[in-house]
Amino acid sequence: MKKESHWLTESVRGGLIGGGVIILLALIGMIGRFAERPVIDGVLVLGRLLMIAVFFAVGYGAARNELLPVTRLLTGILAGAVAGILVDLFVLFGEGVNIRPMFINASPELYEFLAFGNLAMAVVAGAITGLVAAAFRFLPARLRSALLTGLAIMVVIGMLSDQLLLILNNNGLARYVQGWLLAPRGVSVSGAVIASVVIAAISYVQSVRRAGQADQPIAARRPNRLVTATLWVIAVAVLLFLPQVLGPYHSEVLNQVGLFVLMGLGLNIVVGFAGMLDVGYVAFFALGAYVMGMLTSPEGFIAQATGAWNFWEALPVAFVVAVIAGILLGIPVLKIRGDYLTIVTLGFGEIIRLLALSDWLRPYTGGAQGIAAIPPIEIPGLFSISGPDKPQRLFYLVLIACLVAIFVATRLKHSRIGRAWMAVREDEDVAEAMGINLVQTKLLAFAAGAAFSGISGTIFAAKLSTIYPHSFGLLISINILALIIVGGMGNIPGVILGALVLVGLPELLREFSEFRLLVYGAVLIFMMLQRPEGLVPDKPQQLVEEGA
Questions:
Q1: What is the mean pLDDT of residues 423-435?
Q2: Domains of the chain
Q3: Is residue 379 exposed (0-12), middle (13-18) or buried (19+ Cβ within 10 Å)?
């Protein structure tokens, strides 16, 4: 009887939470807005998928502690049904009481959508989805992960189908995939099945392969050099032709991702390698941009005194200024740890922004009006990154900067200073007892991280030709920190993946920009609870190399 009471309690609690989540998402307008975006053409819209995902989550979570198959299935069914009942009660309440003056999104159309057109259908849909979620737990963990990966990527493809068709149409390839794979809005039914199955199969094979490699000797795990070289050649060829294939808009999105990759690689040194939480990292990004503006723009006070510099002359100066700023920030915080370090770095970032905005420095920074007329990047007589194809030309500069930063960050990670950073991250007292110079190690981390951010700021200034203090708010630092956490803290490929997910996708899905921060928060909560190591966890490469 005690066990029965337990699963009943879990089911009801999970169902109530799930129903509350759906109601909250409906009242803030998320479900109604997402109902306008098809995922599977003529079958499923994103708003409906969001409700089903909540039903699935509560059924899957409620059945986690049940060992008996029948009890597990009943738990999932009841949790989903309770969520559906709560949604129905909200619909009945909303139809009887006018709550629209308080919640503008509470419309008759929303009520009909939440009830699946019929109040009984919401309960049935919740119960069936909860049953499927509970049955899903009977599958092996590796297969579950592969299926979820396939479904998640299929949903992303459906959301980006119009973007994909635009790219394919520009290259004369749209007719080969339209209809059976992609629709103008969403994927076709056959495309949804094909994409889910193929991606799930690839994910499963890779998982089996990784598990098999774990049982092999370390020397046998090293990839074949010929295969590695071939993959590198293919990757270089793809990157060289990518801007021409994508076009100006999508190249601009990749440029934005690249700038965040640069900053993420720098913050990854400070936070991921050395374990010092810095939320004022945008300050170095701003310094790089402002130094570039002051030196190259006719409005910049240095350019007015000495003549306008070009981008390549100003780049080393901005680099040095960012490094010095990183050291100056590091000196007063050497003895500070944990939350206090976070507060100090937050203050540093705000100080830089407010100084740029102040009337006191207005003759130098332009104040609220910023600095305009920053010239494009060019080598006289050879090329200029300007004109209608500016994003495509700029892509190569951003790519080179990212490749250099990846190379430097990788070499630093596997060097003596990299091992010192990681020792400090694990335990400062033990690291100091082992002979590591904490002052030097921390200052080097701040300086290296600031350098990457400063370079990103210089490219940002030249890309926009105008900079304003409002472009360097706290949210930039939060975004960089978020992409490191989601991608995998301390892992360089994780930074790239995090930038694509948290910067690239929102840029392509601008119609949902009002919910961007809400999605950020939900993703971070999920990552902290379910996958705190990130999407691409960092591996102890030093131990592997030493064992080899």
A1: 88
A2: 1-138 (no CATH), 229-547 (1.10.3470)
A3: exposed
